[in-house]
Amino acid sequence: MEREHLIKPLLNQRYATVQYGKGVFLYDEHGKAYLDASSGAVTASIGHGVQEIIDAMIEQANKVSFVYRSQFTNEPAERLAKKLSDLAAGNDYWTFFVNSGSEATETAMKIAIQHWQEKGRHGKIKVLSRRMSYHGITLGALSMSGHVGRRRRFIPLLEDFPVVAPPYCYRCPFHMTYPECGIACADDLETAVKRIGAEHIAGFIAEPIVGAAGGAVVPPEGYYQKIKEICERNEILFIADEVMTGIARTGAMFGMEHWGVEPDLIALGKGMSAGYTPIAAAMVKDHVMEPILQGSKLVMAGHTFSANPQSAAVSLAVLDYIEKHDLAKAAEDKGAYLLSRLKELSDRCGMIGDVRGKGLLLAVEFVSDRAGKLPFPSANGVTSRIINKAFDKGLLVYPASGGVDGEGDAVILAPPLVITLDEIDLLVNTFEQTVHEVMLEVM
Ligand code: PLP
Asked: The pTM is what?
């Protein structure tokens, strides 16, 4: 075998080589079709090969692809920042553009800290988060992430920010039931604030719906209203990590709209460009920017490719496409259909413990004993088996961990929002065959 040069996720595995994509399908070098039931990493929300986006890309490339943001501003970036503010609750956000979700959450973290510094509150430097969470792979973002597997190697370098219990009703960390619990998981933020001291806390970050670290975990009604109230009372900025949930994925433009909560800062990525180019963003409310505008007048963040005109033009075209085709509504309607089909499937598959999610961000959690909600031993590698077997059958699904501390198995199903009902039926049938075959192996 020829020696390789590209570092891939698993270095002992042979990867198929993608040739092209169209709609919800990707095709490899042998012409095999794969139904992209995860939109890659919950990213390709408008499907592959959309001509309008390719046209917008070429149009901008014919003008200018790169400028350095300290030398020029550019029209696509200015328009995109305004567009995002128009789409978000309150319509009063500034935006700082970056290139990945990790940079977006880390920039939000830094701006939250800078906000308090500009007000002379230099002790407020921690950004609390939940144990079941993933906010990114760079060290600041990883400090805020509870994802056990991704943290492990770097623990000595990380801050211990994920201290709050997750809103995970399927296996409640407090062994309680909603609504009698009184949303104890939200009260856990208050407990952490009392222990650490609000004078040390700049912000609290949460994914509206937990993604990779839990598998589409939707909090109970009233949770975010309570979280926001605790944050406000303690002068803590609330950061919504909408990297996975943002831009129509859950049936609303922003996930937090489902709970009517306006975050002080928002991190965006993935669906912002639907994968056509790398771009992400930290959105910042007026009142958070105000002390910076009055003070140093300089946001201490940024990358060479920040506010890149090429990426901004692509993102604008993606947002237009999403609005033109009302893909937030499509996510709601098709998500309801896929969820109902998966619930039927769980009645026929003993190893499906839970089916959950919102819009087209759905997940299936696997258990060895449904009544006892017992996870499989990790040595069984159930998530990998499902992913690999589905792949062989031409179906792409995304790994997640179930369980409060990542001890469980789950996969995310989050196809492009343009998927048809027939394609959803194909997805479910292939997924059912996959689950049955894995069940025979592990049960
Ligand atoms: N935040 C959330 C909620 C995510 O799901 C992810 C990626 O999966 C990130 C942040 C990090 O984004 P990226 O992989 O683009 O750095």
From this structure: 0.98
